[in-house]
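Structure ticket #2291
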Amino acid sequence: MTENGDCCDYCAMISEFIDGELPPDLCALLEEHLASCDNCTIVLNTMKKTIELYREDEGIEDLPEGVKRRLFTTLSLSDYLPK
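Resolution: structure written out below.
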């Protein structure tokens, strides 16, 4: 949490901010908050990088099944693995 307010409220706006769907007044508030909050800036940059990597599917090979299984298990996503 910072002097500028509750970071959870600001982080909830980040997706709409990135998509260009955040209303201008909220956009200005978020930008002001980001100028003074390293944690929220990290969240924003991580989300942008994640989106960028997701869109870069060219030349990416599928993970070997064992690696995929360990990754999904570690992330508690094993229910999404094919049976």
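Closing remark: The chain has a mean pLDDT of 83.
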